[in-house]
């Protein structure tokens, strides 16, 4: 075992411990995928990341992202959290306030401005309507009539998200889904708030087959939903989405649009710094 730097950060909330926690192992050279997976399962967080030297000259660092059960090519809150941990450990921002993360999904630009971090949303690799049998199954999982689902779309950007649109944030907040029926589906639900509310949309993320059934705040899902809602003419960035409300969190995801590209941002707070023997 080797003593390595270790961080835990809170992502997507300006209030510490009200967003989504991320564990970050620094200087992860020499660790096998099996060792990384074992440690990620042990932390029992939605994701744990491992920082490595970049293999691309265009990147500032490389990251491997693990849930408690598998490695992901990309995920949103681990991207912002890893960037924050890398900066806290001495990483230097490029001119213009940017850095570049390398992950299995490719090179992800990250912007640093006004006390927030934001990543450029990766392209959707599957982006098509969900067929009727699966949509009906999702309604059963969510515990709602099929007619309450206004639309459903595959929104794959690393995680295999299926986006589900409901008519209101109130409907989203009242969902009481059955995790035993979800199998391995990854379902993201979105509904609009009233115009007088602080945030434009309410989002919830349900992950079947994972120890974390409902994710507190989810960057990859919000990135995918932003693309879908914008393309459908249902959202005009910039806007803010809330997530984690029913879990007692205060997640706030800030969506913007630059040159036709979706950017997903939020506050990141360092909460724990130390070492780990791994």
Automatic annotation (TrEMBL):
It comes from the Bacteria. SUPFAM superfamilies: Diaminopimelate epimerase-like. This is PhzF family phenazine biosynthesis protein. It comes from Arthrobacter zhaoxinii.
């Amino acid at each position: 075992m080797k003593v390595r730097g270790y961080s835990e950060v809170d992502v997507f909330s300006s209030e510490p411990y009200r967003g989504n926690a991320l564990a970050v192992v620094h200087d992860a050279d020499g660790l096998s995928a099996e060792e990384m997976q074992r440690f990620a399962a042990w932390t029992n967080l939605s994701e744990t990341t491992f920082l490595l030297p970049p293999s691309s000259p265009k990147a500032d660092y490389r990251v491997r992202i693990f849930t408690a059960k598998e490695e992901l090519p990309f995920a949103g809150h681990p991207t912002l959290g890893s960037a924050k941990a890398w900066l806290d450990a001495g990483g230097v921002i490029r001119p213009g306030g940017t850095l570049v993360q390398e992950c299995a999904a490719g090179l992800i630009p990250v912007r640093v401005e006004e006390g927030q971090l934001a990543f450029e949303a990766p392209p959707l690799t599957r982006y098509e309507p969900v067929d009727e049998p699966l949509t009906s199954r999702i309604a059963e999982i969510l515990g709602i009539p099929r007619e309450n689902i206004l639309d459903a779309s595959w929104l794959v950007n690393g995680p295999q998200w299926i986006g589900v649109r409901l008519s209101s944030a109130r409907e989203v907040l009242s969902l009481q889904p059955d995790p035993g029926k979800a199998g391995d589906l990854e379902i993201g639900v979105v509904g609009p708030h009233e115009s007088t509310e602080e945030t434009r949309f309410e989002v919830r993320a349900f992950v079947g087959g994972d120890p974390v059934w409902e994710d507190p705040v989810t960057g990859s899902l919000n990135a995918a939903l932003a693309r879908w809602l914008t393309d459908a003419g249902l959202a005009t960035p910039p806007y803010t989405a809330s997530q984690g409300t029913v879990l007692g969190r205060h997640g706030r995801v800030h969506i913007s649009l630059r040159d036709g590209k979706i950017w997903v941002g939020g506050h990141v707070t360092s909460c724990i710094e130390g070492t780990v023997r791994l």
